[in-house]
Design brief:
single chain; mainly beta; 9-stranded mixed β-sheet; 14% helix; 39% strand; globular
Length: 132
């Protein structure tokens, strides 16, 4: 029974992720520039983003392909720069996808991973762990 509940939760989260994504902007596949529009606040490592449109991209792709940047829609303001780790999925999507972690009640949803269109390897966001 618990397994069925978890499957329903995952399907719901993926559905929300598809609903929140904007049309893909595929100008530069190397840095994986992708625009996402969120209708509610979301959390990425180190910052809570208010509802709005944001540019997600890989930073300094010549050195590391595991550093993600989140910028304003026009690319002039950096909201967050953080590490990611590869995350695999079986079936690629023709659209960009974000997945969410199960959140705390009343807190913004935390993005778990970002997948570029047509890729089976995405970027799982690395959040700091709190000891206490």
């Amino acid at each position: 029974m618990h397994r069925a509940h978890a499957s329903v939760f995952v399907a719901l989260v993926l559905g929300i992720a598809f609903a929140l994504t904007a049309s893909p902007a595929r100008a530069n596949q190397w840095d994986q520039r992708t625009y996402f529009t969120f209708s509610a606040p979301v959390e990425v490592p180190g910052v809570t983003l208010p509802a709005g449109t944001y540019l997600f991209k890989l930073a300094d792709v010549d050195v590391e392909r595991n550093v993600v940047q989140v910028l304003s829609e026009d690319g002039t303001k950096v909201y967050a720069t953080f590490f990611s780790i590869p995350e695999e999925r079986v079936t690629p999507s023709d659209r960009p996808v974000v997945t969410f972690e199960e959140g705390r009640a009343g807190a913004p949803e935390a993005i778990s991973a970002w997948f570029y269109p047509d890729d089976t390897t995405g970027h799982a966001f690395v959040y700091p762990t709190h000891v206490g």
